[in-house]
Design goal:
This protein is mostly beta strands and about 170 residues long. It is about 0% helix and about 55% strand. A hairpin with a 2-residue loop joins β5 and β6.
Length: about 170
């Protein structure tokens, strides 16, 4: 009986089908039933990106917030896979009882996006600083640019000194 394994130099590989470890009917290229241990410093990759990879966003905003105009504060581009995308934005209010909107989503310059993560902070007092935070977990099929978008009902100032926007590869 011939083997489905092919030997080439010091390598061995399976040319067709799926391999099951602890599974007689594998449903994936490599299907493991049970725990998997990985030792050493070798990362695990999905779609060419190591799990745990952190990508930092690029700050785009001007420091002053235009009243009731959505502004792209950050941008980040992520490859296919599952990502945790997080944004923390520092804002200084310009007038009492203001509203601050923060959205993380794939549409440039739009707050309250369907499928995005939307936050509202109300009753911002004059000259008070506030940090808004949003975190979203997204499974992305193709390379996508995400935006962190802010809008103020009263004007004020965005600060990148205490703000961040980043993505962490989960799967």
């Amino acid at each position: 009986m011939s083997s489905p394994w092919v030997a080439s130099s010091s390598n061995i590989y399976f040319a067709a089908g799926s391999v099951g470890i602890g599974s007689a009917l594998p449903t994936h290229t490599l299907d493991v039933s049970g725990s998997v241990a990985v030792s050493g410093a070798t990362p695990i990759y999905t779609n060419g990106i190591a799990i745990g990879t952190i990508i930092n966003g690029t700050w785009l905003a001007q420091s002053s917030a235009t009243v009731n105009i959505a502004q792209n504060l950050y941008t980040i581009t992520v490859s296919p896979g599952t990502w945790m995308i997080a944004c923390s934005v520092d804002f200084s209010g310009a007038a009492a009882n203001g509203l601050i909107y923060l959205t993380v989503g794939p549409t440039s310059g739009a707050i309250n996006q369907t499928g995005g993560l939307n936050r509202v902070c109300s009753n911002i007092l004059a000259s008070n600083e506030v940090a808004l935070q949003s975190t979203v977990f997204q499974t992305i099929a193709s390379t996508t640019t995400y935006y962190c978008i802010g809008q103020s009902s009263t004007g004020g100032y965005w600060s990148n000194a205490f703000s961040s926007f980043y993505a962490v590869k989960i799967v």
